[in-house]
Amino acid sequence: NVTVTAWRDGIINDKMAAMQSTIEDSTRINIMVSLSTIYAFYPEFFNADSAMMYAEKALQLQQSIISKENKTIEARESSFNIWMSQEVLATLFRSMGNYTKSLELHLANLSLTEKLKEKIYSVQSISNLIPDYLAMKDFQNVLRYCRLADSLLLQVDNSLKNNKREQWWITNYTGIAYFNMDSLDKSLLWGRKLQGLSTYLGDPFFNSH
What are the distances in angstroms from CA 94 to CA 122, 149, 169, 195? Predict the structure, then answer.
């Protein structure tokens, strides 16, 4: 247990030490994105304040570099860090009940992936923003973005399991929207599609839903 604890603490400590010793802005951004992700999404390290602080710092520094070097936001070396920082911030705002701010950041991420012409990442961005609309009970927009995601999924390789997982989430959200709109026949239809996808994926998580 001591070894496991030391290893877990090392995940944070190693990154802190690396950030102190590095002078390259791009490296510092990568470290801050990693720290914000750990503090936001790892239960054993969860710290909303730290996650938000590192995500905001990474985002500010990345945007400063883009402005200073006259790069476009679509530049691949910066796009992932911006996307991930905004995803962390959006998730934290959602956890605090600020769905409007969460949605604003998620829509910005969708716009970024569309500019990059990364279809599967656009689907992931849609999957991430739909819970904001669900929380706000805006089921029409849930369906709107599910349809957009479905159209994008037709343009990617659906034999890949990761893509099938994204399809599972979109199918799930579509069924939930129809159920809440009292369109029970359509909800049942999408529920059957979901069952088929769950069987195909063969993952206990998806089969339990």
Answer: 20, 21, 18, 28
